[in-house]
Design goal:
Elements: H1 3-16, E1 26-32, E2 37-42, H2 45-52, H3 57-66, E3 70-75, H4 76-96, H5 102-120, H6 125-129, E4 143-146, H7 151-163, E5 168-173, H8 181-194, E6 198-202, H9 206-213, H10 219-237, E7 242-245, E8 256-259, E9 262-266, H11 267-270, H12 275-283, H13 296-304, H14 309-321, H15 327-338
Parallel strand pairs: 2-3, 4-5, 4-7, 5-6, 7-9
Antiparallel strand pairs: 1-2, 8-9
Length: 341
């Protein structure tokens, strides 16, 4: 597909549906014929908005007219920002990896190579990952990976395996109200496919449940802190030097941080991965997004105290501002959070 043809189609569609007849500035178009996916790179966010159109009408009609399965629109300015964040992470990683001896350093060297390749080709994560083989697990675990069963933590576990961390997957299990059975099934299926050892850590969060259900606070911050502290303590007990999480924030140099003698790595944040990229990689191993936002506990809290949704919306806005969530996806989440039931 040629850029000129795409521009002509967009201009025609905008006139047809009553939008202002403005020609967007498109830097490039990339079509994956095998997957039926079209990537349109606009020069900046305002140009991206012109391609998408109000309510997504323009890109929706463009998809129909071109008869493609999927169209994704990126702003080149966002790509530059992600590259800059990865350069900051790479600089920090290259400083840190000298703290470890040669055997332990190997996965960090691999991670450094991955970052360098991704900085050169920020839109080719899947292709770059294909260059790294899944090494066998020799049971000398170098890293502990927090695995919730969601797409972001699953993405982290897959990357950790490919980088040669020989990971041990850990799932904190406070009970069905936070970790329902369908998430436990995802965890067990993924670790089985990857041939990775997996353990549950049973944790009592009764006081957190009670306070949240009484409307005294929003549960997510306290829950995340308790889970992180539980896994960090266990990592120290097991003598782990690396602890990997699936957080998408904070990016750049802050995606690597020492917690005492344990190095915490937020892998998706380090790689400036978008939500679409974590979904795509996790999906290749059978892990799919359940949709919506949050766990059953958060759903019950919001149902009883609808104002609690605002705290979740703030998180969605943070991830959207950081370029992790697409505006359309973020809007769906916000609309879902604003429902009364």
């Amino acid at each position: 597909m040629k850029k000129e043809d795409i521009l002509t189609a967009i201009s025609s569609i905008r006139r047809e549906i009553g939008h202002e007849d403005v020609m967007p500035d498109i830097t490039d178009v990339i079509f994956d014929d095998e997957k039926g996916k079209l990537l349109i790179i606009a020069s900046d966010r305002p140009e991206k908005s012109l391609v998408i159109g109000k309510g997504g009408w323009v890109v929706g009609k463009l998809k129909e007219e071109l008869n493609v399965d999927h169209i994704h629109v990126e702003a080149y300015s966002d790509i530059l920002l992600r590259k800059y964040r990865m350069e900051l992470a790479l600089r920090r990683l290259d400083e840190i990896k000298t703290d470890f001896d040669d055997e332990i350093r190997t996965p960090l060297v691999n991670l450094s190579m991955l970052l360098k390749k991704r900085i050169e080709r920020p839109l080719s994560l899947k292709t770059i990952l294909d260059d790294f083989d899944m090494p066998p697990d020799f049971n000398n675990n170098k890293a502990m990976v927090a695995l919730s069963g969601g797409v972001d933590s699953s993405f982290s576990l897959i990357i950790a395996k490919k980088m040669g961390f020989n990971p041990l997957a850990i799932t904190v299990n406070p009970g069905d109200i936070i970790l329902p059975k369908y998430f436990r099934d995802k965890v067990e299926n993924l670790t089985s496919k990857l041939g990775i050892e997996h353990r549950y850590l049973d944790t009592d969060m009764t006081s957190l449940f009670e306070g949240a259900l009484e409307g005294r606070y929003h549960p997510c911050g306290r829950c995340s802190k308790m889970i992180e502290e539980t896994i960090l303590e266990y990592a120290r007990e097991e003598g782990m030097q690396f602890l990997i999480f699936g957080d998408l924030l904070a990016t750049g140099a802050q995606s690597l941080a020492y917690k005492g003698d344990v190095l915490r790595i937020n892998l998706p944040a380090m790689l400036s991965a978008t939500k679409g990229e974590t979904k795509e990689l996790a999906g290749e191993y059978g892990v799919t997004s359940v949709g919506g936002y949050g766990c059953p506990l958060l759903f019950e809290v919001k149902k009883k105290y609808n104002h609690m949704a605002w705290f979740s919306i703030q998180r969605v806005i943070r991830e959207t501002r950081a370029g992790i969530l697409e505006p359309g996806e973020a809007l769906d989440m916000v609309m879902n959070l604003c429902k009364n039931k």
